[in-house]
Amino acid sequence: MAKDFYQVLGVPDTATADEIKKAYRRLAKQYHPDANPNNAQAAERFKEISEAHGVLSDADKRKHYDQMRRLGAFDTGFRRSPGGAGPRPGPGTPGANTGGFEQNIDFDLGGLGGLGDIFSSIFGRKGREDAGGGDAIETLVEIPFRVAALGGKVPVRLPVTEGCPTCHGTGGAPGAKISPCPECNGRGTVTFGQGGFAVSRPCPQCRGKGKIPSTPCPTCAGAGQVRTEREVLITVPPGTETGAKVRLRGQGQAAQPGAPVGDLVVTFQVEADRFFRREGLDVICEVPLNLAQAVFGTRLRVRTLDGKKVVLRVPPGTQPGRKFRVKGMGIEKGDRKGDQLVQVAVKIPDELSPEQEELLKKFAESSGMAF
Length: 371
Hints:
By secondary structure, the chain is α+β, with helices and mostly antiparallel strands.
């Protein structure tokens, strides 16, 4: 029987959420494609681990999964027939039982064939597949503050699984003979008895393809896919905030060789800037003033988002923390544009010479200041 999700992560079905999380992190680190380049088996294992964690880490999904698991369905499919236990012929085979209750489970299991229609209705999704039928790649991209504010383009390198260039997805070496799988008779699935159910799962010998080569492909070890990296240039819209997402159609990967290509879903993380911070469409910066500038007034050249500088007039008697507004120099989004707020920070000298102290005391006394 195919391993269930608890077996995939190596935890008991009584495992706590923390135990599941720790097991996933340990296995993901071990089998991550970056640590196992061009290793098709490691890539398959990593995908299986991710799928298991995606279900078991969510309380609602885990509850529904446990219900299906108790029925003997595990992460495969089931067909209930009026007979008792024992093997049942697969769909379309002579003598297949068409009576009783029949239901298929179909959501993604490490590329070994679909396993999502029932689980998608239970879980509210269909694995990692998008509307185009391929695998949607989700990635987090950090972008500089100014790029997020003004918009621009950023390059991103993504690990993807693509069809093997040597065998073109067949899994066979050049010149190899491709024959129907003897284990599943070319169906791609095997069926066996489980209590009052006939349970089907992807064939372990042909990996759900229904065909096997006489000689495995030396590049992908018969998987039909290889792990590689692809660089994508992503357009960042002006006014982008942390958590914003963009979907790039057809920039993901195919669920299996020859299948439609999915989408790329990018979530942005805006990096902090040393000078600017954001409040809505306004940008705020802080500039230092010495005591004399605050008392007598001055003119400052202040940098703006676009790299240019504006001259700001600071009047005499300016208090620490006062903000000056520069109209229209904030973030533009649609038909709206914010301002730039310049906050002054008055710096007090750490030490004064005896002469400076004397002059400051005389100034304070003449101004009626107590000290």
